[in-house]
């Protein structure tokens, strides 16, 4: 029993090539897919048709491996993971975790490396997909990772088809009229795919160990959703720190307004979803629900304080206080294992540190500096302390995702200490923080290069450049001296203008016009 591919070439007019995928009738869910490619078809349609055949063939694959070796009541078999499965993990991690985000950045800056990077990532993703269904060793039952893989590949196929059409520049007729919608759809999918890939990688890690089954599903979802939210918040703070000040200036809002808005919305969700209404209250239900209440209450206050009485954007400390209180509440959760108690404590302290450093950043480093009203007022110097709050959110997210009941039990049985485990999680946070900073640096490099040669900006780059090609940021003492000179000159000019203005606008009767 195997998958059969039949290629038929018809020489009689009209000549055509017919591809047929079929599955033996002895296997369940048999299906036959057929595609005909005629020579009259445009050349670009052939790879698209091939991708459509590939997409239809996704339904031929089911969950990973044979289910007959899985014990009753278990999600995985007792065998260790084989070499093929490890290759599948490495290839998919490279494709979805590194190459696709890199290709997304290349696409944003319209680099010539965008298409080659996406082609390589797509090829690896397709190979890794089929390796995931052809491995030996450990076998897996029906799981979300295997089901979501088909949807992820479908997203990829749609993205590739849109990309091919956009590269053809078909601007006549119906395709020309909908081109702007194709561009928007391609951009939206480009941002959705990395998020979907993150979800799929988490589901893969869960499926590899058979976690999050039966009664463990609820707390498992809470840990992975909240942990991912902390990491996403850290990534957003990193983007706003390095590349988002111009966007903030255009919105006319302070950063705390958007932080408070998300906190309030998330608090509303937690308030009504953490307890199954009609059932008895448990201590965890009370803690999670009360945490949701303080989030939406504090979020509303933060939104109100994000503007002064004149309507100008203003900084406030409410989001930082919410993070600090959340860390304290999380660290106080009662645990059954000593290892889990230590991990949750360090997670709480890390999250409290994120809130505290954010508070210090706003109050003492930035001194409540209001978000600039236009991009020209943005200070490009970033204090080194400002990198600390985002990183601590990365670390908090990984610590919380790595503290589920089943993970703690597995590590406790293996004799792993909390010190080594926490250091490993911090190492992963450092690597992700590095990768995000590298992508943002790449984006800044390309956007800065594309803006050169435009009148005064080019002269500014030449004046503030160094022999190694890097832009020179004026030192703080130089900028203070320059500000002082401008202040003195402004005062002299103002006095002269006042004297001249008085002479010009004076009349014989002593009254100015």
Q: What is the H/E order? A: EEEHHHHHHHHHHHHHHHHH
Which runs of at least 5 residues are low in confidence (pLDDT < 50)?
1-5, 7-44, 59-63, 455-477, 486-494, 503-513
Euclidean distance between termini CA atoms: 101 Å
Helix percent reads 55-70%
- Could you give a short account of the major beta sheet? 3 strands, antiparallel
Strand content: under 5%
Overall SS class:
mainly alpha
Strand arrangement in the largest pleated sheet = 1-2-3
Please state the average pLDDT score. 79
Number of domains: 3
Descriptive overview:
The protein has three domains: 1-43; 61-65 and 81-210, no CATH class; 215-450, no CATH class. The chain is 64% helix and 4% strand. The chain contains 17 helices and three strands. It has helices at 45-57, 83-108, 114-131, 144-168, 173-177, 179-209, 217-242, 245-251, 255-273, 283-305, 318-331, 338-365, 388-401, 405-414, 418-450, 456-463, 476-504; strands spanning 4-10, 16-22, 32-37. The chain has a three-stranded antiparallel beta sheet, with helices on one face. β1 (4-10) and β2 form a beta hairpin. It is globular. The termini are far apart. 24% of the residues are buried. Residues 485-500 have a biased composition (Acidic residues).
